[in-house]
Amino acid sequence: MTDLTPLTSLSSALADVVARTAPSVVSVHSHRSRSTGFVWKSGLIATADEALADEGDVQIVLADGSTIAATIAGRDHTTDIALLRADTAVAPVRLAATVPALGALSVVVSANRDTPSAALGMVSASGKGWRSLRGGEIDARIELDVRLRPSQEGGLALDASGEAFGMAVLGPRRVLVIPTATIERVASQLETRGRIARGYLGLGLQPLRLDDGLGAMVMNVDKAGPAATAGIRQGDVIVAVNDQKLSGVRALSRTLGPASIGTVVDVAVRRGGEPASFKVTVGERPEA
Can you tell me the distance from the alpha carbon of 274 to that of 269, in angstroms, rounded to the nearest whole number? Predict the structure, then answer.
């Protein structure tokens, strides 16, 4: 009996990891776009929202080559997670609530040209949670030193033991991983509601540079919205929220995540040059 070399053992272990996961990974076709998804729950497929077309039919190609129709159950642009419904009996993937260590090996199992594919890389960043440019709460920062094609976006990121710790997406000049905690939190809401609840003030704002910092001029007010109820008017200039100076309109929007709904915020404004303050109960953004 010949002893296996360490490299041969590693190769065999990685091949086994891929073989166990590949049947639950699918190719997603949407309006001339191809990406990857995986079976999150029975009949439900998680995929990268950014890679999913905004119009047209969606089809799923399974690992065995068969094609089935899918519908969009919900999508969240801020965390790059979309959920599809499809009539498939493919077993779901078990996601592990782990964050890999810096320098750990990782395998991304995905689909390329409608067939299973794999890419080996290394965890190049592993850290605390962060907020996406669109305001989504991502529970951990995980980056991979690996090259992926657009069709592989939405694939599963596995550690060396075969545990799936998230979904690989293409970020600016890097491959990011949407971790398990974020997927479970967002996909659960998409499954039940089809959308993610967001905070709502009912204001249309325009950035404004002031002598002592930044402000946001109220350009329009939803008459049925929380800000109008609190007394904020068109022409007011917001200068601070909860005693924190305003750093920009986008920064204010990012604070209006799901957890903000129902909270009371103290909004400081200037009205005709005079200071005023209003307590606004954050509402839920209406469906578009």
Answer: 8
What confidence score (pLDDT) does residue 1 get?
46
Spans of the chain below 50 pLDDT: 1
Helix/strand/coil (H, E, C) string of 204-233? EEEEEEECCEEEEEEEEECCCCHHHHHCCC
- Cα gap 145→105, rounded to integer Å: 10
Tell me the per-residue pLDDT of 80-123, one tens digit each, with 9 for 90 and over: 999 999 999 999 999 999 999 999 999 999 999 899 999 999 99
153 and 51 Cβ atoms separated by less than 8 Å: yes
CA distances from 198 to 73, 218, 222, 245, 283 (A): 18, 20, 16, 22, 8
> What distance in Å separates the CA atoms of residue 137 and residue 116, rounded to the nearest whole number?
30
Closest to 272 in 3D by CA, of 234, 231, 223: 234
As a whole number of angstroms, the distance between CA 193 and CA 274 comes to 43
Compute the distance between CA of residue 81 and CA of residue 78 in angstroms, rounded to an integer. 8
Residue type, 20: R
Rg (CA), the chain: 23
Work out whether strand 44-48 and strand 274-281 pair parallel, antiparallel, or are unpaired: unpaired
- Provide the Cα torsion 38, 44, 48, 49; round to 10°: 170
* Residue partners of 272: CB distance under 8 A and separation at least 6: none
For position 286, what pLDDT does the model report?
87
Q: Is 272 exposed, middle or buried (0-12, 13-18, 19+ CB in 10 A)?
A: exposed
Q: Between vectors from CA 124 to CA 185 and to CA 110, what angle results, nearest 5°?
A: 60
Within 10 angstroms of residue 40's Cβ, the number of other Cβ atoms is 24
